[in-house]
Amino acid sequence: MATSIPIAVRSSNGINVNLGPPNFGTVVDFSPVVSKSCRTLLFSPNGSYLAYVNGLVLKIVRTDIWKDVAVIEGTKAYHLAFSPKGTYLMSWEVFIVNKDHPQGSPNLHIYKTETGEHVKSFVQKKQTNWEPQWSVDEFLCARIVNTDVIFYENSNFERIVNRINSSKIVSYSISPMIDTYHVLCQTVGGGQGQPSVGKMFKYPAFENQQALASKSFFQADKVEFYWNPNGNCALLLTITEVDKTGGSYYGKQGLYFLSNTNQTAMVNMSKDGPIYNVAWSPKSQEFCVIYGFTPAKATLFNLKCEPVFELGTGPRNSIYYNPQGNILLLGGFGNLRGQIDIWDTNNKKLIGKCDASDTTYLEWSPDGTHFLTATTAPRLRIGNGYKIWHYSGVLMFEKSVNQNEELYETCWKKFPLGEFKDPIITDEKIEGITSSQPQASKQVYRPPSARNRVINFKLHDDEEEPHKPGGDNAAPSKTALKQKKKREARKARKAEEAGDDDVLQIAKIEVNLTGDPDKDKKIKNLKKKLQAIEKLKAQQAQGKQLEINQVAKIKAETELLKELAELQV
């Protein structure tokens, strides 16, 4: 029987640990922590330890025996983080200045995970970028101090061995590559109108002329870094909080590619609009981007930033690869209703669909076969609980918290990379359960005038089915759409310039003018109304759904003809 993977749960009643599939819900041999002051919990990257804060106490638990190995008293830790191999645990507290400590006291602490031994403390005033970054082998450790990045080696925090201080640095990231260390950083210019620059260096060569690759951009309030798992190339997502053109509520984004071989490129999108999410495949050879105005588009790109497969459009804004990289989940959460599509990445095939409404958190199980969705406070304070799903979209387990309880956090226990093989994707029918929670209506809203009628038009002209780039289902490119609009505008202008004679030819309405200016004016107005009715009747015959006022105009045709006849007598 497969081993059940533990799930840690933090709620207003404290912390406990349950088991995932196949022994759902069984509590492991771990004494639940009953305390409303539990602030945070975290598994180490290889899952050997669980750390959590309970009031003024930080505890470290060994997960093979589920027993405390260290209890650190007197801490008000707000955030926790492990080093990549789990050797060190870091905690951050809110920086406070008072009469006893007018300059403030150290609030960033580093401990040895195995024993809880205190190693070093620093002053870290800001919550942003508080976490020291490590190389995957833990040889390097780096921090931002003012506008510099400083480096320590071999866990010797008493000696700074290197520093990046060539420009004003606002963010940085160390690559996940082993033995060779690459560092990305965002620098900002010293004056107004100066661009931000993203640079990639090879440690310890940090002079500007030694940069392996660089890319400048004028519109970037901040930059998010996305390394591929191999650590030899990265994506830089630039973000401005406000789109000065007024085109997007989400601000403006740009996506750039940098590699350690001095290759740079801008990732071109085939649809206008914001970039919602970016994610690398764990296999490192492709990445996925969700972008564009609703309905958002999802595209897979290769390392040349070329689109290799279009995953169509839909209500989505989130990307989750399973740890093995052979399954891709696309979801729409937050202001979307929670629709989920699941893809086989090797065969580019849709293998599952489900709806997980009110989801505030999603995480794949380390086995790559199941994923967890949760509804947590404070984002949502009702309907709190979590669910476990099979990759086919079948609901396997559901756990709701008590009526007076709030769920804050859930997470799977971590395992070393390679612990689980790629899950075998099959069409075998999986037996699941039906959710006990009420499901949101899937019926599309239609105005009263459109109800009980056959609808033969698309809500969005740019809806697109999954396809390979250039396939039959491809949506028109932005250039093609612009050309189409220009052609339609020219056609409309020509029709307008043609005047009443062309319209009369289409409508076949003959009138006789009387010579009386008042009567002739009324006759011409009636002629125009009748011509418009003829157009509406032609559109109706072609199957177009007319509005209520347009139908009313057609019904008035008899009265208008009668009035016209009386004027021509």
How is this fold's topology laid out?
Elements: E1 6-11, E2 14-19, E3 38-43, E4 49-54, E5 57-62, E6 67-73, E7 79-82, E8 88-92, E9 108-112, E10 118-122, E11 133-134, E12 140-145, E13 148-153, E14 162-164, E15 168-174, E16 182-188, E17 196-202, E18 213-217, E19 222-227, E20 233-240, E21 252-259, E22 264-266, E23 275-280, E24 286-291, E25 296-302, E26 307-314, E27 318-321, E28 327-331, E29 339-344, E30 349-355, E31 361-364, E32 370-375, E33 385-390, E34 395-400, E35 407-412, H1 478-498, H2 500-507, H3 517-541, H4 548-555, H5 557-567
Antiparallel strand pairs: 1-2, 1-35, 3-4, 4-5, 5-6, 7-8, 8-9, 9-10, 11-12, 12-13, 13-14, 15-16, 16-17, 17-18, 19-20, 20-21, 21-22, 23-24, 24-25, 25-26, 27-28, 28-29, 29-30, 31-32, 32-33, 33-34
Could you walk me through the main structural features you see in this protein, from its secondary elements to its overall organization?
The protein has helices spanning 478-498, 500-507, 517-541, 548-555, 557-567; strands at residues 6-11, 14-19, 38-43, 49-54, 57-62, 67-73, 79-82, 88-92, 108-112, 118-122, 133-134, 140-145, 148-153, 162-164, 168-174, 182-188, 196-202, 213-217, 222-227, 233-240, 252-259, 264-266, 275-280, 286-291, 296-302, 307-314, 318-321, 327-331, 339-344, 349-355, 361-364, 370-375, 385-390, 395-400, 407-412. The protein has 569 residues and is mainly beta. The strands form nine sheets. Strands 3-4-5-6 form a four-stranded antiparallel sheet, with no helix packed on it. A four-stranded antiparallel sheet has the order 7-8-9-10, with no helix packed on it. A four-stranded antiparallel sheet has the order 11-12-13-14, with no helix packed on it. A hairpin with a 4-residue loop joins strand 24 (286-291) and strand 25 (296-302). Helix 2 crosses helix 3, helix 3 packs across helix 4 and helix 3 packs antiparallel against helix 5 (557-567). The radius of gyration is 31 Å and the shape is elongated. The chain starts with 5 loop residues before the first strand and ends with a helix.
